[in-house]
Amino acid sequence: MVVELSDRSRVVLSDIVDIYTETGQPVGSKALCERSKLDLSAASLRNVMSDLEKNGYLESLHTSGGRAPTEAGFRYYTQSMVEVQEDLIGDDLKAQILARISDEKSLKETIDDLSMFLGEMTACTGVVTAPKFDMETLDQLEFLRLSGDRVLAIMVTKSGEIENRIIHVPADISIEKLNESSKHLREVVGGKTLSDARVLMMQELMEHKNHVDNMMDEMMQVADEWAEPKATDTALVVSGTQNLFQYPELVRDQLKSLFKAFEEKRMLMALMNEVSKGEGVQIFVGTDCGMQDVSSCSMVSTSYGSADKTIVGTLGVVGPMRMNYKRAVQLVDYTGKVLSKVIEKRGLEISHPMTEIKG
Length: 359
Fold this sequence. Notes:
With 359 residues, the chain is an alpha+beta fold. It is 45% helix and 18% strand. It has 12 helices and 11 strands. The strands form 3 sheets. Strands 8-9-10-3-7-11 form a 6-stranded mixed beta sheet, with helices on both faces. Strands 4-5-6 form a 3-stranded antiparallel beta sheet. Strands 1-2 form a two-stranded antiparallel sheet. The radius of gyration is 25 Å and the shape is elongated. Mean pLDDT is 78; it is low at 226-234 and 348-357.
């Protein structure tokens, strides 16, 4: 349950979060009195702090009387006191962002660079997903026999985007059969978006169920799965994981769990996919992230891509709950907007694959 705060309590909570973000230490009334935006005595500040603790926004970590924000406190702070203000980003930082989103770079190079840059500028871990092309129009669909039962499925969109996928087809199926299936599927999906192609292929399968052999059945099922990409299908670049070692509150076991999440990517990709459905900068505090055993972390993220939403990716930072949210929000928001403009301008010159984790 969210307890609304008075203006005075909001200012005190904001001051405590700002101090705790810098120091990582519980904040006492003396330190707060020196830094507070309010002209209150130490005794008055202690009373406000006590009320904030009763409402669940602060907690006492030591007998010294110092208090630290709780997860609920950070969440209230991010929801009520953090907003996008582009003028908070200086010209120098804007220039650095623009330099990393140059027209001369491929999108792969840009995403690699941005992931590292976001991590460095926020002292957190930068995470960027490559765009998804679910609404792109298909142009070609080919199959190439590899070793054993492996087949390389190659999809080419009208904009020239190429995506490869390894599928498994019985080894006794000849290259002629593969070519025949490729030709048939091209006739069905050519000039259609992935979403439309999925519907048409399923209709084709149902209408001709008695006339297609096992191999065609397999191909249709593969095409169905292709049109419904899993969370791990979209490339994710993670950079700056070593930045998290500077935060004592992220104990070894939590870091181990977080790095495991980075490596497996499933939970992180699912979260980033949720971001792609929303508008503007989104902040996930603690358990909002949905990543088990790493409840001391938060994520600030936004989507980027084409104005018509046919191409959407995400970018953001993952760090401790006491990250500098104000800086992270401004940085993530501005970077996402600049990257979106460049994608529109380029006419979607995208290169794949981009699946990588950097230290």
